[in-house]
Description:
Elements: H1 6-24, H2 30-40, H3 45-48, E1 90-97, E2 112-121, E3 126-131, E4 137-140, E5 145-148, H4 151-169, E6 175-180, H5 181-190, E7 194-198, E8 202-206, E9 211-215, E10 218-222, H6 224-232, H7 239-257, H8 267-277, E11 278-280, H9 284-293, E12 302-306, E13 309-314, E14 317-322, H10 324-334, E15 348-353, H11 358-370, E16 374-379, E17 387-390, H12 397-406, E18 414-417, E19 429-433
Parallel strand pairs: 1-6, 3-12, 12-18, 15-16, 15-19, 17-18
Antiparallel strand pairs: 1-2, 2-3, 4-5, 6-11, 7-10, 8-9, 13-14, 17-19
Amino acid sequence: MKLANNNQQEEYKAFLNQIRRERKEETSNFAKLLFTFVLAILFAVIVCVFVVENSSLMNNMTNEEASAGGFFKFSRNKKDFQVPFSPRRQNILFLGVDSNGQGADLWEGTRSDTIMVINVDPKTKTIKAISIPRDSKVYLPENKGVSKINSAHALGGVNLVKKTLKETFGIKIDKYIIVHDGAVEKIVDAFGGIPIYVEKPMKYHDWAGHLHIDLNKGNTVLNGKQAVGYLRYRKDGLGDIGRTQRQQWFMRSLFEKMKSLDTITKLPEVLNICKTHIKTDMSFYELSQYAGFVKGVDENKIEIATLPGAPNQKGYISYWILDPQKTQEVIDRIIYRDRQEADFSKFKAGIMYSPLKEQEAQIMQDQLKELGFEVNMLKITHLSHTRFVANRNAVTVDFYNWLQKKMPQLNKIQFVYDPTENFSVGSDFTIVLAEG
Length: 436
């Protein structure tokens, strides 16, 4: 392999030093702080900023238990988490709960289709997030038994979810935001739809559950009902993981949409939606403090990951069985911010590309080779969504940002940490070039 030269190594070190200096700079424009905060903490916070503190939720319903094993505990209490006004890192729990039937209480007995822990670090002005597949098999505290993690909210509200995350993964939650499915539909409609690339035809009808999905492949603008269907679709062979990925892509598309200034005019309508469909234990003052520390965060510095594992069927129940070692690696990286120092010149690059992206892939291959990287290529007929995948823990966001300086076409491509090597060509990092 042709190694990057010493000048590039020195340039990379200088780049890292510059990043550290920039992270120490402070800003004071509150309007910009608040708007940036809205973008970074996902669509729910745009309304939560104006909502007073709510009490925690406690619910009960029948659990779908299974006697088989296959759950693990990941315990690690490395650092204490403080109030949001401290420079210490914080964990914000983001839950998206489903409908419990027409006319039913919006919160009682509802399961969480979306479970995400957002780790924010005011000191480095960075945001990292873990998506937890809703079918993950865990042991629920308070003698609730073995079940999917999405049952925790239905059985014991947000308190049981927080206990489950603490006892199973060692993740302590500082604050939470809960969004009902109805909010997604109404907010998307209020914003005039969300543009997104639908990676495959999605056809599904659940007459009992009043869920009807009829989406064609390609770029489209989803209305509210279509957005809910897109986020809940799982009949594609990927199951819960496919849905989790779509949740991440949807939120990124919404991130882009909300950069438009005309979305501000929609706030009064969105406020009314918030009063009914969103709950949080954060006050306006607390939210404004969070806004302060995320001012320096841009989308190129947001890192996401999904807890790795494999599907498993036990009778009529389908579980996501977590990989204990790789799950711990993801938690250590995202929550505890563990990092490995490595010589980036030894990284192997990979490019996975759709047939229509072949010319673009060849250009990237030449650029990476000029930078001294060994490059492996793989053409795949069906690829969904362009992204930059870190296959090794040593491949950091800082390295990605440095590479963006050399290859501007990587700017704003979603950064994903995925140690499973599902998107790898014998590579340490992989650029996935898809049609959408």
